[in-house]
Write a sequence for this structure.
């Protein structure tokens, strides 16, 4: 029984796909795709040296291109801010005089205690303020 080279490449691709599933290491998937490229090269009738070169080039190219993109997506911040992070940068209306010691604002439909970022600054009722940060249950405004 003589098995063609492209079949061996497909067996290798499946063999490289198994650790991908078991370890969740995407590099195995990239090697598996390289093996499929080697199988296509073998099916087209190219020699063993060309098959191995295609496998290496495709695998290395995938690792060089896909890994940095995946790392950026993995390390990136979520695009949707939630909780107190969603309140930073929003505008609020002063309900009670706000200064460095305290006051009240209406932020996102709720009444919040607030203080100014600059202790010498004050805001009177009805004025618009910007929320700089949330410190505990107090909005810091300017």
């Amino acid at each position: 029984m003589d098995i063609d080279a492209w079949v061996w490449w497909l067996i290798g691709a499946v063999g490289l796909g198994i650790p991908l599933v078991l370890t969740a290491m995407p590099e195995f998937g990239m090697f598996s795709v390289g093996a499929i490229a080697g199988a296509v090269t073998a099916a087209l009738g190219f020699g063993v040296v060309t098959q191995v070169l295609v496998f290496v080039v495709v695998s290395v190219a995938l690792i060089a291109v896909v890994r940095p993109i995946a790392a950026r997506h993995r390390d990136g911040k979520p695009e949707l801010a939630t909780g107190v992070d969603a309140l930073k940068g929003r505008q609020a209306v002063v309900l009670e005089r706000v200064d460095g010691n305290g006051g009240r604002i209406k932020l996102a439909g709720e009444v919040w205690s607030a203080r100014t970022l600059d202790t010498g600054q004050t805001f009177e009722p009805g004025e618009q303020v910007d929320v700089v940060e949330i410190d505990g249950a107090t909005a810091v405004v300017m």
Remarks:
- The beta strands are 91-96, 104-107, 110-116, 128-135, 138-141.
- The chain has three helices and five strands.
- The longest helix spans residues 48-75.
